[in-house]
Write a structure and sequence with these properties.
The protein is an alpha+beta fold and about 250 residues long. It folds into 2 domains: about 20-80; about 85-249, Heat Shock Protein 90, CATH 3.30.565. Helices cover about 50% and strands about 20% of the residues. The chain contains 5 helices and 7 strands, in the order H-H-E-H-E-E-H-E-E-H-E-E. The strands form 2 sheets. The protein has a 5-stranded mixed sheet. The protein has a two-stranded antiparallel sheet with strand order 1-3. Strand 6 (about 220-230) and strand 7 form a beta hairpin. Helix 1 packs across helix 3, helix 3 runs parallel beside helix 4 (about 130-150) and helix 4 (about 130-150) runs antiparallel to helix 5. The chain is globular and about 70 Å long. It binds adenosine-5'-triphosphate and magnesium ion. Magnesium ion binds near residues 140, 141 and 203. Magnesium ion binds near residues 137 and 141.
């Protein structure tokens, strides 16, 4: 069976698909606000109640929101650019960028993300955006599973562990886990349980591909119990292991 996907155009489309919901979420509220502001201005002008101060304030609100929208577009576009050169990047900073993109939607869905580091400065060598895409795929899956299983207290936990030879990232969710009969198949191309919701089943295949081929590491999945704030949860855990000596591989 074909287990690798080399078509970067296809990868880009899939990536865009994974971020689409986040883009929509981040655009809707400011667009509605701009619309309300402009409608208000029009109305006040029509009834002859427009004073200079209101006019100025409303226009500033509109301008600020369009600046925010333009910056948001830049953030998303940066993520979709192809990495041309490998470089050292801090896992910590990479995760912060990811959060700025996906956290607003997670927050709106009531999902809390917790991160821990054994070493905040741990660095990794390679394509930073590809690494980010892998983490985004895993987080999107965690979000889907949590929402699908209607979990009450919704949590995702990300642990970054600096091991001797490797960097290890464990991403836990409390959605209840991956059914044992499908667990061996989740990395297969086109395997999805989300046919009805437009799932392509490519997210994890692409992620494994990136970690194995470009980072010479491994991507693993299991179901497990985990502790967080003195409580115990159960769900899937995805582990990314990347060798530190990547630069020499
Ligand atoms: N955290 C998780 N909890 C439970 N099941 C999961 C989890 N992550 C992945 N899965 C299962 O693995 C399958 C494959 O995931 P993959 O990301 O490759 O595709 P998808 O999410 O179905 O589609 P797409 O990524 O295109 O939206 C999912 O359909 C789901 O059944
Ligand atoms: Mg997916």
């Amino acid at each position: 069976m074909e287990t690798t996907i080399h078509n970067t155009q296809e990868e880009k489309l899939i990536m865009l698909g994974g971020m689409f919901e986040n883009i929509i979420h981040q655009f809707k509220q400011p667009l509605n606000a701009i619309n309300a502001e402009a409608t208000g201005l029009k109305f006040q002008k029509e009834i002859g109640m427009m004073d200079d101060e209101t006019f100025e304030e409303s226009l500033n609100n509109i301008i600020n929101r369009t600046i925010y929208l333009a910056e948001t577009i830049d953030d998303f576009r940066d993520f979709l650019k192809e990495d041309k050169v490998k470089f050292f990047f801090k896992i910590n900073e990479n995760l912060k960028q990811i959060e700025s993109i996906i956290e607003p939607l997670l927050k709106a869905k009531g999902i809390k993300i917790y991160k821990t580091f054994t070493n905040e400065d741990v660095e990794c060598y390679g394509y930073g955006r590809e690494f980010a895409q892998v983490v985004i795929n895993i987080l999107n899956n965690a979000k889907d599973a949590i929402l699908m299983n209607e979990v009450e207290e919704k949590v995702i936990k990300v642990d970054v562990i600096d091991e001797d030879e490797n960097i290890r990232i464990d991403i836990y969710d409390n959605a209840g886990g991956i059914p044992e009969d499908i667990l061996p198949r989740i990395f297969n191309p086109h395997f999805t349980t989300k046919e009805d919701n437009g799932g392509t089943g490519i997210g994890l295949t692409m992620s494994k591909n990136i970690i194995e081929e470009h980072f010479k590491g491994s991507l693993l999945a299991k179901n497990t119990q985990f502790e967080l704030n003195e409580k115990s949860y159960y769900g899937a855990c995805f582990t990314i292991i990347i060798p530190k000596n990547m630069k020499n591989v």
